[in-house]
Amino acid sequence: MAVEQQLPVSSSAQPRVSRMAGGGTDGNERLTAATGAVLIALLAVIGVTIISLRPLLSVHLFVGILLIGPVALKLGSTGYRFVRYYTRNPTYRRKGAPPQLQRLIIAPVVVVSTVVVLASGVALLFVGPQSRGTLLPIHKVSFFVWVAFTALHVLVHLAALPRALRADYGAPGPWREEIGGRSGRILSLAGALTAGAVLAILLIPQFAPWLNFHGGHH
Predict the structure, then answer these.
(1) Would the pTM of this model clear 0.70, i.e. be above it?
(2) Does position 157 have pLDDT exceeding 80, yes or no?
(3) At what angle do helices 24-51 and 57-66 cross, to 10 degrees?
(4) 135 falls in which pLDDT band (50, 70, 90)?
(5) What is the DSSP string of the chain?
(6) Residues 100, 103, 108, 113: what is their CA dihedral angle, to the nearest 10 degrees?
(7) How far apart are CA 61 and CA 13, in angstroms?
(8) What pLDDT score does 10 carry?
(9) pLDDT per residue over 11-43, tens digit each?
(10) Quick one: residue 189, left, alpha or beta (phi over 0 = left, psi -120 to 50 = alpha)?
(11) How far apart are CA 92 and CA 73, in angstroms?
């Protein structure tokens, strides 16, 4: 009786689901890290616009809206880990919970301030400059709280960030450990950025009242 010889399965023949949605806890960590790196870059741009707000107001408004996409992805990836851990998924339980300070104080403040700063910013955009007496203080305070606690959050993960980024985005090498879901993670981040950019482009007409207001107040 002939014995069938089993050939090695090439990477291109791997199940599509594994390539798009695999990775488990490590994949979740890599997606969170990559999204966090994008947010750091976008927040740096926002910081520059605040230093010179009037000439860079259009950039501030555009990037502020663009942030909604990657922020939603970051909340989704961290929220997924939270749910899987507290629903006692064995893999996520073995991975362990974040440090207690981060879990009980930093993360909740980051989430709440994120929602408030983005919601108040969108409300300001639609209501117009006449809302600056009520909504603008909320937006400013929540933004500075958000930046402060997000900075603490980044510091906690800063040491692990380069390794997590090289793992999915670096050139092939000994430091790049291939795990499932890389294509899905890249598409998720690209999709979040694209969604944020499309939303910002669609809302450009809403910028006019604020640009005209600041243009007439020197």
Answers:
(1) yes
(2) no
(3) 170
(4) very high
(5) -PPPPPPPPPGGGS-HHHHHH--HHHHHHHHHHHHHHHHHHHHHHHHHHHHTTTTTHHHHHHHHHHTHHHHHHHHHHHHHHHHHHHTT-HHHHHH-PPPHHIIIIIHHHHHHHHHHHHHHHHHHHHH-GGGTTTHHHHHHHHHHHHHHHHHHHHHHHGGGHHHHHHHHHSPSSTT----TTHHHHHHHHHHHHHHHHHHHHHTGGGGHHHHHHHHT--
(6) 90
(7) 45
(8) 47
(9) 444 555 545 556 788 888 889 889 989 998 998
(10) alpha
(11) 19
Using CA atoms, how far apart are residues 188 and 182, in angstroms rounded to an integer? 10
At residue 9, the pLDDT reads 43
Cα–Cα separations (whole angstroms), residue 161 to 38, 138, 150, 155: 12, 31, 14, 10
